Amino acid sequence: MFKIMEEKVLNKDVKLFRIEASKIAKMCLPGQFVIVHATEEAERIPLTIADYSRTEGWITIIFQLVGSATMKLAQLTVGEAIRDVVGPLGRPSNLDNLTKVCVIGGGVGCAIALPVARGLFEKNVDVETIIGFRNRDLMILEEELKQYSNHLHVMTDDGSAGEKGLVTQKLEELIQNGHQFDEVIAIGPLIMMKFVALLTKKYKIKTVVSMNPIMIDGTGMCGCCRVSVGGKTKFACVDGPDFDAHEIDFDEAMMRNKMYVPEETEKREQTCNLFKGVTHE
Amino acid sequence: MNSKHEMRLLEIAKRLTTFEEVALGYNEEEAYLESLRCLNCKTKPCVSACPVAIDIPRFIMKIKEKDITSAHHIITEANLLPGVCGRVCPQESQCESTCVRAIKGEAVAIGRLERYVADNYQGEAHPQVAKKDYQVAIIGSGPAGLACAGVLIEKGYTVTIYEAMHENGGVLVYGIPEFRLPKRIVKAEIETLKQMGVKFENNVVVGKTVLLEDLKQENDAIFIGTGAGLPKFMNIPGENYNGVLSANEFLTRMNLMKAYQEKYDTPLKKMTNVAVVGGGNVAMDAARSARRMGAHVYLIYRRGFQEMPARLEEIHHAQEEGIIFKNLTNPVAITANNEGRVTNIICQEMVLGEPDASGRRRPMAKEGSEVVFDVDTVIMAIGNYPNPLLRTSTSLVEYDKYNCLVVDENNKTTCDGIYGGGDVVTGAATVILAMGAGKKAAYAIDLYLQNGKER
Known about the structure:
heterodimer; A: 29% helix; 32% strand; globular; B: alpha/beta; Fumarate Reductase Iron-sulfur Protein, Chain B, domain 2; FAD/NAD(P)-binding domain; five-stranded parallel β-sheet; 33% helix
């Protein structure tokens, strides 16, 4: 059973669960994800493993309430169990042979940036981290990321925390100020990753992004997580989720991510109605 | 006497709106009358044509005596999934193809009789006592793994099946639709194995959650039955537009995630006009499922009816249900609107040339031909590659250039104590061939462990 040991509200839309999952905790590496199936009727969705303890046998997942699956997940609470958690899936991020890396996290993408930054930092890589949010209220994991970065730069769209501006502005500033990155690792909304990729292409800096497409099984079976990389179709679940950002067809990925938006909106409204009046203290 | 007793079918109008089983099975009278057709011949050609060698005439004679319990015992000596096999085996190309009755008329309806016995058996499974001090791990709970487990548990081994999904049964639950194989049948037959003592560990992806190397340490033998689950695409322009799905994705959404039932959340795009590409059983399953969701369905296949790998019965049912067959047609591109939603599938007409390596006539494009279908959904049902997860995480066993697991004539891999069978070895094939391989491997594992004990 995948019992929830702890829950934290990171912002009004983002929650963290610490879950008993000893087998997964024993095997997982930064960049890998799990498929979470909250209840019998819920969808199976991929969520990144944000943190883990091999000795205590737990992992943490961080999720944004966007659809019926995450809403059903959020209805579970400490002491209850998630029906199914499968993993660790995907290939781990490559953290070897790097000396200086810029890690970029956008919004809930910081949940993936965290284990990557931590993994690099623990290998004595010089980690320059940039995180971006719409505003101060949506900021997550600032303290944790600070702990595993040589420098942490916070950007908000409205300037309510850190500096006003986009993560790409900060990245360009760092590059122009002479920071020599072996690699940029960016995780966040597709549109952010696309613009990071365009920028680093200009400066010829190798860039890796973590893709988070729609998935069902996470083991290569359904093929709905298709991503075009260098003109070839790849499955994010078994070939990724990390890919060379300069080879990805982001426009196609953005189009594919919107595939079920009408259906999800409808389901979400149903789920919301279902849970109306139900509150957790 | 020269033809099979017909099996009653669900009326067509009802098929188009529900997922209820189409073939309704024999009643007692029909089964009895059909059992009389068996000549109980001495040569029993049907038995040798059965991949799991069920003693067919013997169980049919028990139906004649109206002794369902004994008939069931005879079948389950060889096959622990009679309800599944009675429904999905291609009997016409196996047991029934060799029936002496078929020389003048139709073969005995062996599959229908097998199903009758499975559906009407009242007894319970008996827990097996672990008599042998050996543990066997089975990877994958599909037909190969289940058949392997059935043999080994009866021989007294401790058996654990590791399954990546949250439900057991592999392709029987994610692939084959409810109207052809009701999930309660699969559940009941898996329940029998559980009662006998087989342990199931779900949500374990071997190669990811645990390594093959770890299982090797903890167990005395291993069976790999991971199937062929990596969908093929055609690599034509437009294949990543919204509305192009693999048959695996479509069927998984429908069967495993139950998208056709209101209370389940997994979404399915509304589909009005659907093109299913392929001519196998999976293509028929996808086409007939889409039809039940209210769609107008074209089945696009590059060869003709003669060459279609799907079972004849499936083709007939698909035709009855209004699937429009577009044979000798092959897709070359898919187009979409500015939101990326599929609008058309563009095809070429084909002609058949000389037979190729598979013995089927090779399809060739008719120069300058073009056929366009207005569709909002394209389902690719052109086959699967073996799943790569285990292969890419271990060097204990060898895989060939097609990424199929390499095994010898006893289903042993290149590593001592590790066996394999089913689609991971052969590439996508049938349920019963996978079960046959699972059984064969189980006998080889038994022999290996017996000998090992003596060493």
